[in-house]
Amino acid sequence: MMISFNFAVYFLNLFHTFFISSNLSYNELVQLIEKTFLISLKDFILQIYDNRFKTYVEFDDEYLNWIRNRVSRTNIQTIFGGIIPKRQTTRRVQGPPISLIRSSDALVTHHIVWLDDYIGRQENCPYLKLAFCKATSINDYDINTIPSTGMIEPLICLDTIPDPVSRNTTQIYRFNVFQDIERCLNFMQKIKSHSVTILIASNNFGSHIVPLLAHLTHVFIYILQNDWYFSEWGLDYVDRLQMFDDDQALLIRIIRDLAFSYVQKSELCQESQFDESLVIDALKYLQWARLLYERADRIDGTRFSSKRIEYINNQIDKYEQIVDNFILHLDPDFGSISRETI
């Protein structure tokens, strides 16, 4: 039986998922990839992760037919791949940022750090990591591609998707996982204090690392645990952390907290309405906050954030008008502008 699946491809700083239908030929797939990434695969090698050998292999017509038959006998829905120059055929593909739209380095963004003995292992739960990454991203991902129920346990049991990243950490666009406290601390110390950092830790790791980070006001701490009996240590840090025993509740709270942090950053920029660059930054922060609030509500199945979204929409209208006034001042003939570039 032939079956369809998703082929998630990394190339440079882009990530795109292609739907491989049962009747899509290899040549048609190549054309889609070339059109998406604006390249000719004659100069590159298309690779796919082979879970049997725990490495990347060349993806050709013969392999496509083989993988279709294999996928039909498994629970796999997404398979990872990558594109490398031909001169790098002996090197393993490294996972670039998952970013459909490159964000401005000048803007303050956020980091997600996950410290867990199981999830921190390179080979475990890459799809779970991707799901959390996409759900907390400032890019407008299709909500239907983000699992919203029963997230962690099924993925721990069934996940066989590869993790095309470095040995000690998994890094997917400001999303990093660790299984070692020292490496985690070293990484977090390198993050600039003006960038919001979300730390997710297991109960055991949390009891050791939280005392070392409690003084860092830009670090927001979340403990995901399965046994409340051993959580008494957290009482000493009730003003610095939140504890959860449900992965979906944790994810929704993180998304909303990130959204609120971007509203706060926009308000700092709004203090100077005569600085065009700061006004544009404020507008971008508000757009990110709205996207995150809307995403949290869709995953939650509620309208919990409706009042906040209404406030953000009013602020966006206000600052779009200010941006238009800046443009009118520079160009009196200005009639309309596409704000997709803002």
Write up what this structure looks like:
The chain has 342 residues and is α/β, with parallel strands linked by helices. The chain folds into 3 domains: 5-88, Phosphatidylinositol 3-kinase Catalytic Subunit, Chain A, domain 1 (Ubiquitin-like (UB roll)); 110-245, no CATH class; 262-341, no CATH class. The protein has 9 helices and 11 strands. The protein has helices at 26-37, 61-71, 126-135, 152-158, 181-190, 203-213, 247-269, 276-300, 306-330, and strands at residues 5-11, 14-20, 44-50, 55-58, 78-85, 110-115, 170-171, 175-178, 196-202, 219-224, 241-244. A 6-stranded mixed beta sheet has the order 7-8-6-9-10-11, sandwiched between helices. It has a 5-stranded mixed beta sheet with strand order 2-1-5-3-4. Strand 3 (44-50) and strand 4 form a beta hairpin. Helix 8 packs antiparallel against helix 9 (306-330). The longest helix is centred in the C-terminal third of the chain and has 25 residues, at 276-300. 35% of the residues are buried. Mean pLDDT is 75; it is low at 88-106, 147-173 and 330-342. Residues 1-22 form the signal peptide. Keywords: Signal.
